[in-house]
Amino acid sequence: MANQVIKKASLQEEVEVAPPKAHEVQIKIIATAVCHTDAYTLSGADPEGSFPVILGREGAGIVESVGEGVTQLKAGDTVIPQCGECKFCLNPKTNLCQKIRVTQGKGLMPDGTSRFTCKGKTNLHYMGTSSFSEYTAVADISVAKSVESVPKLVSEYMSKKIKVDEFVTHSLSFDQINEAFDLLHAGKRSSHTKNIRAVLGLRCLRLNVKKSFPNALT
Predict the structure, then answer these.
(1) Other C-beta atoms within 10 Å of 84: how many?
(2) What Gene3D superfamilies has UniProt attached to this entry (predicted)?
(3) 180 and 124 co-located in one domain
């Protein structure tokens, strides 16, 4: 139901993910991120928000299995969300996919159905991704192969074997970054806002590279 306000979200549920149908891919999610869009939908303010739904729109994973007709991917491939067909996804300026937009906006696969079931009830997909599920199902045009070492890098980072902050640090504290973002959102400025290179999109945050890496890019 659209515009429904969720007062309490379930942190963990057992979800059944049906096998992929023709031109679909089942993926084991290795890494995911929480986006403001997830929170926006969860708040009930999203006009396209429908429930119950498995959120998550940013992630990376490994192909578990593929449906009939899938030729560009195979089990074991490392993938990320990305359409390789529509004019928007092929344009370097945007990847707001329109290829399967109609069904995707309804939380469904291209055939108009869902692959998620929880406690006997159908759960909806989210933006064609649903990366908060351990396993997810997506249309085959909605994924692209990524660097094979991504899962290993994520695992080593989470286990602190790779310490990114030893190489790159923000020139501003997160409190300063958040303050600058709030001021930009309100149409104001401060000494911190000049270090943010895009309004509301925050295209990038200015970074400082430590002296031990003088040739690294900033």
Answers:
(1) 14
(2) Medium-chain alcohol dehydrogenases, catalytic domain
(3) no
